[in-house]
Write a structure and sequence with these properties.
Diaminopimelate Epimerase, Chain A, domain 1, alpha+beta
């Protein structure tokens, strides 16, 4: 069986930045094991398999695989798939703003695609579930796991803390960008500390950034998913946005933040996060960005 694929760099406006993504725009006929093998072959943070929706009210069904596992929701595959499908004509653009819905295991994910000159230029997802937070291990233990000292952690507002908007992670705020750059995951301590935790993904945040326009600079470690470090993580940005909405964002209106990621990896990424609050509650968390198409080809997949 032959399957078309497209790769794109997501959360960037230039090639070789952002987070690479592989998209199979028509994955009908593939079984789960084949999808996992293909994702392992690409060895990118995620590979997306696009299918017809189960509910005809939606536009497409997405199955998203890291090299190690299928995930229920992820941001860079959602944003990237919308822009790839629009670019190849698989999604019809309606004027300057097109709204679609992707089916993902975590739930329906609304996506808004913005176009300029008839070409898709930006996509923004709305997180599929409301934000949730849970208690995390003690700061001293988390600092040791990151090869840092307790003084490198900023523990205001209750951090470290687990958070999710469909993609759970451990959020750790560091005191500055220097500490962010020094962080190294001690895999032995990581395995012991988070073995039975809600999640083993670790998201580091600094309010300092070498990107002068960014509000935060972040790093993301996900070795359990086969990703030593991720250059741009939309699901994590949504979780962080949800945490901000619950812990640190004003009670009313929409707050916007620019997150820089991937700088330490040489793949600069920009993720735009919106937190909408009504009556003191988080009404929506949105994550958006751009993408650049990189390559196109055909996979030969053995039957069964």
């Amino acid at each position: 069986m032959r399957y078309r694929f497209i790769t794109a760099d997501v959360f960037t406006d230039r090639i070789f930045g952002g987070n690479p993504l592989a998209v199979l725009p028509d994955a009908r006929g593939l079984e789960s094991g084949q999808m996992q093998s293909i994702a392992r072959e690409f060895n990118l943070s995620e590979t997306v398999f696009v299918l017809p929706p189960d509910d005809r009210a939606n536009d497409r069904k997405l199955r998203i695989f890291t090299p190690a596992q299928e995930v229920p929701f992820a941001g860079h595959p959602t944003v990237g798939s919308a822009l790839v499908l629009a670019a190849i004509g698989a999604l019809e653009l309606v004027g300057e703003t097109t709204r679609i819905v992707f089916e993902e295991p975590a739930g329906p994910v609304p996506v808004t695609i913005r176009a300029a000159g008839g070409k898709a230029s930006f996509a923004q997802l709305t997180a599929p579930v409301a934000p949730e937070v849970r208690l995390a291990p003690a700061p001293d233990a988390v600092a040791a796991m990151l090869s840092l000292t307790p003084a490198d952690l900023r523990t205001a507002d209750g951090l470290p803390e687990f958070a999710s908007c469909g993609f759970p992670l451990l959020i750790v705020e560091l005191v500055d960008a220097a500490a962010l750059g020094r962080a190294r995951l001690d895999l032995a301590l990581w395995q012991r500390l988070l073995a039975d935790a809600w999640t083993r993904e670790v998201y580091l945040v600094s309010r300092e950034s070498s990107d002068p326009e960014a509000d935060f600079q972040v790093r993301m470690f996900a070795p359990a998913a086969g990703i030593a470090e991720d250059p741009a993580t939309g699901g994590a940005a949504a979780a962080f946005g949800g945490w901000l909405g619950l812990r640190a964002t004003p009670a009313e209106g929409t707050t916007r933040h620019l997150i820089a990621q991937g700088l330490e990896m040489g793949r600069p990424s920009r993720l735009e996060v919106e937190i909408e609050k009504r009556a003191g509650r988080v009404a929506a968390v949105r994550v958006g960005g751009s993408a650049v198409l990189v390559s196109e080809g055909t996979l030969e997949v053995p039957a069964g």
